[in-house]
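User: Structure please.
Assistant: Input sequence and predicted structure:
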Amino acid sequence: MFKALMLTQQDKATHAAFAELDETQLPPGDVRVRIEYSSLNYKDALAVTGRGAIVRNWPMVPGIDLAGVVEASTDPAWQPGDRVVVNGWGLGETAWGGLAQKASLKSGWLLRLPDGFTTRLAMAIATAGYTAALCVMALQKHGLTPDDGEVLVTGAAGGVGSVAVALLAGLGFSVTASTGRPQEAEYLKVMGAAHIVDRSALATPGKPLQSERWAGVIDSVGSQTLANALAQTKWNGAVAACGLAGGGDLPATVMPFILRGVTLYGINCVFQPNAVREKAWALLAEHVKPDQLAQMTHEVALSDIVQASNDLLAGRIRGRTVVDVNR
């Protein structure tokens, strides 16, 4: 028997409850994993609280991340005892996810735990950090270097933002962090931010083209914030968009694109091939310091997930949330 957080739907309302399950109740898969840690992301919180249309199949075990140990496998590529990490691939949406003590998975979804990482440390990074790395990789592919100027990170006190600030600073970039939580200014400076701006400066409608400031942008907010960031990006600059915490709309014009040559990169972390994932994890391992991860991470028990989900959506949690699924 193992414990799992189970989401069900009745009359279009989501209900979250803990269940004791038998391994025979797991969905089909090539590999069975004993989960040690998961994490709590914005998408997970939306699923758990029913505030977003995340879940596609019911009932559902939420959780887009997990890290643990292989218990059994029908694929010779994986052996009992192998330590693995899994991000995305529809976990918590179309396939049972990581907010449980066991998972049954497709073998192609697994990534070997990167050198130097424990399962807990991997979940301190998880999808949020891996997404931040994909954003940075997009800016690097564009040709952006520290000599080009400031890089803006919006939603900087959140999970993606915190790792993005630390990673960019580790690579030598001058980082400006945008946040609506002024009490987190010192925290963001410890993460590596050189400057802090209040999110209100980016949240109200502005001109289609504004004074050039940013060589690059990593945006997890969307909506008006992304529109203003685009309008403030320098000639031939690049913006990596990976989130919509502020809304899914984009009230912008084509002017930044056709008059300044700005490039907008859309970042999808769910279905990236493992070769790309390995590069992202290697970048994180090299340039994000363990003490930074420790400061941006707090831990909750699996039994605390419902409350933690509400706290995350209310902006009461900064950085990353690791979930110990065994308590």
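The chain has two domains: 2-113+294-324, 127-266.
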